[in-house]
Amino acid sequence: MHSFMDDQAVTERILSHVSNGTTDTGEEVWREPVESYRSEEHFQRELALLRRLAVPFCPSAALREPGSYVAREAAGVPILAVRGEDGKVRAFRNACRHRGAEIASGTGNTKAFVCPYHGWTYQLDGRLQRVSHEHGFPGLDKDAHGLVPVKAEERSGIVFVTQSPQDDESSPGETLPELIAPSLDLIGTHGNVADVNWKISLEGSIEGYHIRFGHRDTFYPYGYDNLNVVEMSGRHSRVTYPFKRIEKLADLPQAERRVEGRLTYVYHLFPNALVTVLSRHTNLVVLEPVAVDQTRLVSYALADTGGDPAAMESAKRDAEFVNQTGAAEDLALVEGIQRSMESGANECFTFGHFESAIVHFHRNLHAEMKREE
To answer: Which of 36, 145, 275, 317 could tie 267 with a disulfide, CB 3.0–4.6 Å?
Structure first.
């Protein structure tokens, strides 16, 4: 069960902050050593952790039909997720059991996976169906040479993958609400590599302390200086970014207050994913560590268009505006932080009371890393 407030309660807290000139604050100041963003040994331990935990891989909407698949790297490992003829989503290590070639790439829809190297063919449930010139492999047990599965689970409209599960690991979505409704369709995917450690990239998305200065001409004219609602649910968090037009709800009864178009919700799905609920579309962004100083940002944009081409175009324009303004500004800032670490100016980064979602992230990350010792 999640512990996030409903829209009406969030609105009431925002309006109270507006009236009082306040914002949500945390109770702790956290100092994170810069070395944890630079150490190759620390980075390898983080990759091992990401393989142990249930992490978002793609939205369920990316696997809408039987045979739909997504193939990409997760925590440095090639993974393939596919919806079977039975409607179930499964995930596998993307490697042929013959000589290890990747059997799929990107996205698509197929009846079976045929290895591009020698034609070994696998059913959607991972079973080895056909071996070309099978007589050349006497005694081959096809039942023992299916694709190697990894744990896959659909929760909150998201496919979570666990590469190396442990018995004591909780369900990935047990402290999350429905984030991506079944009515949302995939309207676009995007991937780019940023020259920044994955944690620095994440930190820039879960605090509003920087809005006035980091987004002076884009977001700030429509929003507030350092006014956010910050909530925790298990290891996850949600930061609410209100727009000034939310003040128009002040005179309405709580039951009639609708927040659509008046705020942005940013959910942090521990450890390395974000769901942003914006005016006309929703984004799932997975921050995939590539190297200690590089992150692949895998983005899925979704919207409820009802099959209306005009609604589709409106949602795409909304997504493009965010990508070209706020996202681009954040990217420039965090890549600058990555470069500045080489100066040696800071031994640690300090996160204060206005950055409590970041503090929550680091506290939980440290706890999980300690379990790995």
So the answer is: 275
DSSP assignments along 246-309, one per residue? GGGGTTS-GGG---TTTEEEEEEETTTEEEEE-SS-EEEEEEEEEETTEEEEEEEEEE--TT-H
Note the pLDDT tens digit of each residue in 39-53.
999 999 999 999 999
Cross-sheet strand order for the sheet of 121-122: 113-114, 121-122, 128-130
Domains of the chain, residue spans: 7-51+175-372, 55-162
Burial of 319 (0-12, 13-18, 19+ CB in 10 A): buried
The tokens 């993307």 sit on which residue? 94
How far, in Å, CA of 233 to CA of 25, rounded? 16
| Closest to 10 (Cα-Cα) out of 205, 222, 257, 182 | 257
Lowest pLDDT segment from 153-162, 168-177, 255-264? 168-177
pTM for the model: 0.96
Q: What is the DSSP letter of 70?
A: E
Indicate if the alpha-carbon torsion angle 230, 232, 236, 238 is positive or negative. negative
Q: How far is 228 from 82, CA to CA, in rounded Å? A: 38
- Check pLDDT > 80 for residue 373: no
CATH for 7-51+175-372?
A: 3.90.380.10
- Distance, in Å, from the CA atom of 176 to the CA atom of 306, rounded to the nearest integer, reads 25
- Token pair recorded at residue 313: 């175009």
pLDDT tens sequence across 231-261: 999 999 999 999 999 999 999 999 899 999 9
CATH superfamily of 55-162: Rieske [2Fe-2S] iron-sulphur domain (2.102.10.10)
How confident is the model over 102-159, as pLDDT tens digits?
999 999 999 999 999 999 999 999 999 999 999 999 999 999 999 999 999 999 999 9
Give CA–CA dist 187/313, Å, rounded: 9
- For residue 298, what are the contacts with CB-CB under 8 A and spacing of at least 6? 72, 189, 190, 191, 285, 286, 287, 288
